[in-house]
Design goal:
It is a single chain. This protein is mainly α. The mean pLDDT is about 90. It contains five helices and two strands, in the order ααββααα. It is flat, with a radius of gyration of 27 Å. The longest helix is centred in the first third of the chain and has 46 residues.
Length: about 160
């Protein structure tokens, strides 16, 4: 049973309602799904266009490298150039994380190490929800997390 708090007592207050016809709900949900279909179609087209663009980018990269050029100017259009950067992956194992954070803390101090030690928001939300279930208190807060935002979304399953 959930602990009584000011937060959940509000849910006991009478809610203002109005009569909503099935036709109104049918129309609103149909419109929502029609808009989803438009979005989904455009997203697929966008993904296809991006794949085509990426393939052309690879062609330009190969041509620049083959010609020994790092950049090329096209009159009236602009300059295409090769950008180079290094990317690393976030450590996955506890041992890898310990090594990285020990290095940062030793070299730069605890404050800098804490700046780099982030938590994935999805994992943090899952952890919060698990803790909230254990404590059974609607007002539960994790230390260091000042605000809890409650959101409601619409789900839909096709018939």
């Amino acid at each position: 049973m959930e602990t009584q708090t000011a937060e959940n007592v509000e849910s006991w207050a009478p809610q203002t309602t109005r009569v909503v016809s099935t036709e109104e709900l049918d129309k609103a949900i149909s419109e929502m799904q029609m808009l989803w279909d438009v979005y989904d179609t455009r997203k697929k087209a966008s993904n296809e266009a991006h794949a085509t663009y990426t393939a052309q980018e690879a062609v330009v990269m190969e041509l620049l490298k083959t010609s020994g050029k790092s950049k090329y100017f096209v009159d009236g259009l602009g300059t295409a150039y090769i950008m180079s950067k290094y990317q690393i992956k976030v450590p996955k194992t506890t041992a890898e994380k310990e090594l990285l954070f020990k290095y940062i803390e030793t070299k730069y101090g605890r404050d800098v190490m804490l700046d780099y030690s982030t938590v994935n928001y999805q994992k943090l939300n899952a952890f919060y929800n698990e803790e909230k279930e254990i404590v059974k208190d609607a007002a539960f807060r994790l230390p260091g997390i000042p605000d809890v935002e409650h959101t409601e979304t619409i789900g839909f399953r096709k018939a």
